[in-house]
Design goal:
The complex is a heterodimer. By secondary structure, chain A is an alpha/beta fold. Chain A contains 12 helices and 5 strands. In chain A, helix 3 links the parallel strand 3 (52-58) and strand 4 (77-83). A 4-stranded mixed sheet of chain B has the order 8-7-6-11. The chains are: A alpha/beta, B alpha+beta. Bound molecules: iron/sulfur cluster (SF4) (2 copies).
Amino acid sequence: MSRPTLAVWKFASCDGCQLTLLNCEDELTDLLRALDVAYFPEATRAASPGPFDISLVEGSITTPADAERIVEVRRLSRCLVTIGACATSGGIQALRNTADVDEYRRLVYPRPDLVAVLDRSTPIATHVTVDVELPGCPVDRHQLLEVIDALLHDRRPRLPTYGVCVECRRAEAACVLVSRGLACLGPVTRAGCGALCPRHGRGCYGCFGPQEAANPSALSDRLVAEGTPRRDVVHLFRTVTAGAEPFRREAARQEEARQEEADRS
Amino acid sequence: MRPVDVVRVAALARVEGEGGVTVRMDGGRVTDVELRVFEPPRFFEAFLRGRAAAEAPDLTARICGICPVAYQLSACAAVEHATGVEVPDTVRRLRRLLYCGEWIQSHALHVHLLHAPDYLGCEGVSDLSAAHPGLVARGLRLKQTGNRVLETVGGRSVHPVTVRVGGFHALPSLAAVKALRPVLAKALDDALATVRLVSGFDVPDLEHPHEYLALRSGTGYPMETGDVVTSGGSAFPVTDYGQHVVEEQVAHSHALHARLDGQRPFVVGPLARYALNADRLTGAAAGAAREAGLGAVCRNPYRSIVVRAVETVYAVEEAQRIVDDWDGEGPAFVDVPFGEGRGTLTGHGATEAPRGVLYHRYTLADDGTITDAVIVPPTSQNLASIEADLRTVAEADPDLPFEEITRRCEAMVRAYDPCISCATHCVTVLPSGEDSDHEKAGG
Ligand code: SF4
Ligand code: SF4
């Protein structure tokens, strides 16, 4: 039997999630044996026309040309996996979604007319059907390997649906929100990183995106009540997963409240 | 002789980010060279406005997943400069250790997996690991060591979480730092073996004439700090970067090219760093450079693979020195105060990313809100020189088969280890609708 083919695609992104695949140093040789790397421009010149058994897609859709390309990628792929916050929620470049993109263009480029770019950065699932979504900025290596392994063995990948708080408890890390009063998105953020930030003395900034049962309003009300300025709360929800709906909504709600406060005073 | 030919590398493989090369030739003469960029812009400098200075390291890290530490540390340097804060020696050394991890990781990836295939007749990772399993295994071991250093100091290797303006959110445990010792010792052997291998590669003859620009500091090979020096004899502080490195738009490629003092194309990165700091190499790195026959200056871009290998040796040794001296004592960070009625603040920061000098400048309101941001990444500074070298390569032997010219052009671009993701966000304009013929797999 021939080996399943793998393709790795890049849209608007930083390459960090693709690099995470190459960072599986211990597993890479076995992976190369189990999979036929048919398209991965960052790692090889060789390029097959497809179709592909597994497509890993990094990056978000930000140009008209890319909106067409992703449809073609979908057509060529048996199973399409989005890797990372860019592909799964629009990434940091979704910060433009609440701004005036014409102004952004003029700010950064001397010839703004040449910049063919969409007003919004959108996740892959906005455009095509996605089979598996992997969160994280970047994705976690172990979750990535788990997904590939699951696909190779025709089983469902085991990915956590609980939040970062659970990982803190498992690691017996002190809650930075309670013990140090730090603003932390752990209560509303999906697990996967092993509570990296709280274990390193800082609050979580939500790079794995919202967990399913997240209640961001309760968290931000508490942060505001404990003295975090509203602007900082808005910014907390607006970083690398700003486009994820629960975070987008909560940032907008806080922004509005901030405006009201400003109008009153 | 062919009348008008176009050598087009649809999508440039084995580089970070997406780009392509177009060389137009007319009767053996190159009429036009273009390093095209497919990467869509992500508007970092625009959305940084209105954010807090303290957010700059985490936000700008996302420009590049291959060299996030470079972005984090240039951002920290600029914000600290704006506020006049000096970080304690513990922080400085730990930053350097973190940077060593990034250099080892990035160089090991480029040297073994991205660049070496050009000299070994391979297409990429898959056939390379079948034909040269030992080389791939060694490259991966080295890369893993770099990642191990990054994880120890930074929490994770892509977009580390511990870096903050003023220092670190937390210091690594003494035991974790000391545990790097055996890994680094093994890495030193590996790094030296790689220098021996790549210095034996048969590379094309080429001497490029460009001016070299790098940082240089009081001690050691430049990484997290230094003033600017050039091979043409210029020297200036980082605060003057914007006056000397001027970006201009060139019609043929829709891209801004940086020029030195508005005129000369120049080169940043390993060749430049080495030419201007070879005397700062010590121990095994100095010996390896000598044995590899690098001389005081190396002007062949194809030989940059040797310099990267030597720099890897240096980074491993430097990491060893920091780890050996580390006692785990000292503050994790110093406060960087805002809101003290100092008015508008401006800060400049430059560090040596694996691919060369990375410059950040921020204008901050009194409360630390960013009101203006300028980021000049290494690859955009090299664009003009890459295009000049492409021209030389394409013109050298115009009667070669098309395929071969294509291959040579591709290898030339790769010798620079360009990071197109980095170059894009601020200086390169996306091809307009009609010529963004991004070709698909097999296209
Ligand atoms: S999700 Fe984060 S790490 Fe992954 S490509 Fe996007 S910016 Fe880079
Ligand atoms: S703690 Fe939060 S921000 Fe930090 S790595 Fe985990 S998910 Fe990302």
